C-alpha cells in the first residue's frame, strides 16, 4: 500500500492537473486495504460543472517500481447521481465504494461532498435477458459454436443472479471478488447452483462445451421454479432446451 506522503503529493499534483477541481477522493483497493504490489492508486476528482467524464492516468515510481495513478473526473451532479445506478462490476448486487475525501476547495464543498462511501442499489430482475441469453446458449449449441456458447452462458449467469437476488438479500459488497463469493453463497437456489454458476461464468477449468450447455440448462430450468406465474416463459424455455439436449 502507498503511504500518506505519496497520497498527499498526488493530491497536490492532481489539483494542478485539474485546476477546476472542487474535491479529490482516494478510493479503490488502497483504501479498502486489499491492494497488491501491482494495484493502481485510484482517485475520484469532482469538478463543479459538466458534463464531464474523463479517465486520465499517470505513472509514478515508488520503492523502485512503477505505480499507476488512475483517476476519474466527473462533474458533481454526475458523481452524485451515480449512486442511483446499479453497478456491473458487482454483478448488479447492492454495493458500496469506500471513499476518503483528501481535499476540498472550501468548507462548503467539504460539507457537500464528504462521505465515507457511495452506496449503489441492486439491479432489477432481468427476466428478459434471462430468456434471451438462454436462447443464445441453445442457438450456439446447435451451431457447435463454442465461443458463442461460453459468452452467452456468462451473460445468462449474470441474469440468473438478478432473478435470485431478491430471494437472497445481502449487505452491500465492496469488491468484485466479494460479489462473486456472495452470489455463490446464495441460500435460495436451484440444485447444483454453485457448480453450474462457476461453469457458466467460465471459472472452472477443463470444462467442455457440453458441460457449459448442461450447466446452462440446469440453471435455466431450476430458476424457472422461482419465476412467478409466467407459463409461456416456462413453455418457451423448456422448448428451447428440449430441442438441444
What is shown here, in short?
The protein is an alpha+beta fold and about 240 residues long. The chain has helices spanning about 5-15, 30, 75-80, 105-115, 125-145, 145-165, 175-185, 195-200, 210-225, 230-240, and strands spanning about 25, 40-45, 55, 55-60, 65-75, 95-100, 100-105, 115-120.
The biggest sheet, with number of strands, parallel, antiparallel or mixed sense and barrel status, is: 6 strands, mixed
Low-confidence stretches: none
Averaging pLDDT over every residue, what do you get? 93
- H/E order of the elements? HEHEEEEHEEHEHHHHHH
Q: What is the CATH architecture assignment of the largest domain?
A: 2-Layer Sandwich
CATH level-4 homologous superfamily of the largest domain: Beta Polymerase, domain 2
Based on CA atoms alone, the radius of gyration comes out at 22 Å
Top-tier CATH class of the largest domain? Alpha Beta
Question: Share of helix among residues?
Answer: 40-55%
Q: What is the number of domains?
A: 2
Descriptive labels:
18% strand; six-stranded mixed β-sheet; alpha+beta; 8 strands; elongated; Four Helix Bundle (Hemerythrin (Met), subunit A); Beta Polymerase, domain 2
Question: Would you write up a description of this structure?
Answer:
There is one protein chain. By secondary structure, this protein is an alpha+beta fold. The chain has two domains: 117 residues, Beta Polymerase, domain 2; 116 residues, Four Helix Bundle (Hemerythrin (Met), subunit A) (Up-down Bundle). Helices cover 46% and strands 18% of the residues. It is built from ten helices and eight strands. The strands form two sheets. Strands 1, 2, 3, 4, 5 and 7 form a six-stranded mixed β-sheet that branches. The protein has a two-stranded antiparallel sheet with strand order 6-8. Strand 4 and strand 5 form a beta hairpin. Helix 5 runs antiparallel to helix 9 and helix 5 packs parallel to helix 10. The N and C termini lie far apart (51 Å).
Amino acid at each position: 500500500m502507498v503511504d500518506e506522503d505519496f497520497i498527499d503529493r498526488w493530491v497536490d499534483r492532481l489539483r494542478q492537473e485539474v485546476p477546476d477541481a472542487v474535491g479529490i477522493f482516494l478510493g479503490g483497493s488502497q483504501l479498502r486495504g486489499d491492494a497488491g504490489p501491482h494495484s493502481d492508486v485510484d482517485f475520484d476528482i469532482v469538478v463543479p460543472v459538466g458534463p464531464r467524464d474523463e479517465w486520465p492516468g499517470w505513472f509514478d515510481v515508488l520503492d523502485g517500481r512503477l505505480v499507476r495513478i488512475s483517476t476519474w473526473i466527473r462533474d458533481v451532479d454526475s458523481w452524485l447521481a451515480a449512486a442511483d445506478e446499479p453497478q456491473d462490476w458487482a454483478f448488479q448486487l447492492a454495493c458500496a465504494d469506500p471513499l476518503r475525501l483528501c481535499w476540498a476547495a472550501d468548507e462548503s464543498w467539504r460539507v457537500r461532498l464528504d462521505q465515507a462511501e457511495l452506496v449503489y442499489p441492486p439491479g432489477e430482475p432481468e427476466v428478459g435477458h434471462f430468456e434471451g441469453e438462454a436462447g443464445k446458449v441453445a442457438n450456439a449449441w446447435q451451431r457447435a459454436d463454442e465461443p458463442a456458447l461460453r459468452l452467452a452462458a456468462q451473460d445468462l449467469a449474470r441474469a440468473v443472479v438478478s432473478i435470485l437476488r431478491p430471494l437472497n438479500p445481502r449487505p452491500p459488497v465492496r469488491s468484485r471478488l466479494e460479489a462473486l463469493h456472495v452470489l455463490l453463497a446464495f441460500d435460495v437456489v436451484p440444485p447444483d447452483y454453485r457448480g453450474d454458476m462457476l461453469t457458466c461464468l467460465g471459472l472452472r477449468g477443463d470444462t467442455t462445451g457440453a458441460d457449459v450447455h448442461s450447466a446452462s440448462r440446469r440453471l435455466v430450468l431450476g430458476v424457472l421454479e422461482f419465476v412467478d406465474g409466467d407459463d409461456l416463459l416456462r413453455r418457451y424455455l423448456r422448448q428451447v432446451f428440449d430441442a438441444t439436449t
